[in-house]
């Protein structure tokens, strides 16, 4: 089952402690080129993550909007998300990989990752819509807006920051967990950790880990900026008005925790 | 099921290792996060540093942190302590934030009443602020507990024993049953831990048992936000 993939030419270390070896591995130009080099692995890593997120968004956003807007199926969505959260992704991934007919195909791993990414997006979407001030929604309805207009013109803009918070934590989890797919003989940056551990090349292990960590931190920072940028202009103004009652305070409670929530991976 | 019964001893052993790696960080994080949260509340600058450092550390993927820590701590790559330290870091990062929210949500008039009754600052913190924060604190703990149980399995990629061993071993032996046992075991463990946490919370907040808990909206919203 475990396919031994071709490895990079081993870096010749001069240092003995893991830190200097890690640094030497990272600064070795041979590790930055070719089909096994860091740039290629990075593209693979991002590719798997993007595919996972696309599938997850296609499932979680419509479902979350529906439940949030209608309030139907609220209990089952929360229960489902809670159950999916407890699933160990490594286990699901190995199981899917074994059951799948072709041992090297990508989709089993992607589906396992989708199970990981759906709960944060789904619960954030649902919670974002459900937390929109009912007074606003009623006002929109009494102005004659259709349900579709209410959903996309009032509820989504008001809940967008919280929704993006869920997306952000899903991105983080997926980027982290894609590192694990190397274990089932796929690519991505996790290869360096898995391959390095197999041959006790701790410079490679550490170097790979640093690249993955840097990727996660950079992407998370980028998404934090996006999250700030897309806040509806109307809501930005509302915040500067003093003595703004509950309506203005609610989003801030959620925003405070939105960046740092959900399951770690 | 047959395989499960035949290997019951191994399942129980690995469950024990798994529990240690998941529960110790939970306890440590409570002890570390509460003082940090109070510090963050009293000092804006320190608070900013603590919260940003927390979210930065929280962003580091677990597999990466598991293999980076041995070089920093000087531990062997197979040590339990790597997993325990890593999970404690994540738990503290998350818990400081929810504890801070919890402490901030305590009504100021209650604090003033306590001071007027003669509570000293530390006494007031331990006797008034902290107990009133328990529901929010436990909401955070329950999220952490579920994710810890699942994260511990990743350590099996380094060869650290936990129920995750059944995933790596099952894959190598091409034996799905073993993986299923591992998954079910992990789920059961997560569920049991959750039940225990709910019971402990009930024990710690006897005043919530009779009356309706707090303003429902605020706590609901917070739970939703924490869970999201």
Could you characterize the architecture of this molecule?
The complex is a heterodimer of chains A (265) and B (228). Chain A is mainly alpha-helical and 265 residues long. Helix content of chain A is 72%, strand content 0%. The longest helix of chain A has 33 residues, at 38-70. The two termini of chain A are 25 Å apart. Chain B has a single domain (2-227), classed as MetI-like fold (Orthogonal Bundle), CATH 1.10.3720.10. Chain B is 82% helix and 0% strand. In chain B, helix 5 (80-104) crosses helix 7 (121-152) and helix 7 (121-152) runs parallel beside helix 11. The two termini of chain B are 35 Å apart. In chain B, 45% of the residues are buried. The model of chain B has no long low-confidence stretch (mean pLDDT 88). Chains A and B meet through helix 1, helix 3, helix 4, helix 5 and helix 7 of A and helix 3, helix 4, helix 5, helix 7 and helix 8 of B. Chain A: Keywords: Membrane, Transmembrane, Transmembrane helix, Transport. Chain A: InterPro entries: ABC_transp_perm/SBD (IPR051204), MetI-like (IPR000515), MetI-like_sf (IPR035906). Chain A: Belongs to the binding-protein-dependent transport system permease family.
Give a brief rundown of this model.
Chain A has helices at 18-27, 38-70, 74-86, 89-99, 107-130, 134-142, 147-178, 190-198, 202-229, 233-240, 246-258.
């Amino acid at each position: 089952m475990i396919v031994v993939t071709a490895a990079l030419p081993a870096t010749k270390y001069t240092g003995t402690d893991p830190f200097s070896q890690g640094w030497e591995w990272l600064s070795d130009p041979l590790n930055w080129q070719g089909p096994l080099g860091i740039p290629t692995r990075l593209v693979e890593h991002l590719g798997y993550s993007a595919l996972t997120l696309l599938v997850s968004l296609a499932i979680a956003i419509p479902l979350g909007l529906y439940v949030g807007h209608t309030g139907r199926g609220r209990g089952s969505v929360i229960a489902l998300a809670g159950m999916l959260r407890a699933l160990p992704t490594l286990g699901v991934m190995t199981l899917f990989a074994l059951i799948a007919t072709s041992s090297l195909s990508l989709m089993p791993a992607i589906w396992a990752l989708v199970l990981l990414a759906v709960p944060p997006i789904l619960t954030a979407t649902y919670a974002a819509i459900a937390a929109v001030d009912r007074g606003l929604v009623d006002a929109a309805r009494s102005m004659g807006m259709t349900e579709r207009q209410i959903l996309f013109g009032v509820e989504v803009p008001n809940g967008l920051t919280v929704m993006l918070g869920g997306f952000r934590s899903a991105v983080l989890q997926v980027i982290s967990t894609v590192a694990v797919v190397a274990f089932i003989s796929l690519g991505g940056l996790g290869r360096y950790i898995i391959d390095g551990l197999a041959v006790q090349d701790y410079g490679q292990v550490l170097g790979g880990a640093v690249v993955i960590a840097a990727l996660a931190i950079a992407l998370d920072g980028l998404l934090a900026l996006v999250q700030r940028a897309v806040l509806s202009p109307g809501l930005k103004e509302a915040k500067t008005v003093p003595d703004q009652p509950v309506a203005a305070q609610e989003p801030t409670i959620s925003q405070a925790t939105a960046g740092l929530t959900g399951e770690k991976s | 099921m047959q395989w499960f019964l035949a290997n019951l001893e191994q399942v129980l052993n690995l469950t024990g290792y798994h529990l240690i790696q998941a529960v110790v960080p939970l306890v440590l994080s409570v002890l570390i996060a509460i003082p940090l949260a109070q510090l963050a509340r009293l000092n804006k600058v320190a608070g900013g540093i603590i919260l940003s450092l927390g979210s930065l550390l929280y962003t580091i993927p677990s597999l990466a942190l598991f293999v980076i820590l041995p070089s920093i701590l000087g531990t062997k790559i197979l040590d339990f302590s790597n997993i325990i330290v890593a999970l404690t870091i994540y738990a503290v990062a998350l818990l400081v934030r929810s504890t801070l929210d919890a402490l901030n949500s305590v009504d100021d008039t209650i604090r003033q009443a306590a001071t007027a009754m003669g509570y000293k600052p530390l006494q007031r913190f331990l006797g008034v602020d902290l107990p009133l924060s328990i529901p929010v604190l436990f909401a955070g703990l329950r999220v952490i507990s579920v994710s810890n149980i699942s994260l511990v399995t990743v350590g099996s990629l380094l060869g650290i024993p936990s129920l995750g061993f059944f995933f790596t071993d099952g894959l190598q032996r091409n034996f799905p049953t073993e993986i299923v046992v591992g998954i079910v075991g992990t789920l059961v463990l997560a569920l049991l831990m959750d039940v225990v946490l709910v019971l402990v919370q009930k024990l710690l907040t006897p005043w919530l048992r009779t009356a309706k808990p707090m303003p429902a909206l605020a706590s609901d919203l917070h739970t939703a936000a924490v869970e999201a």
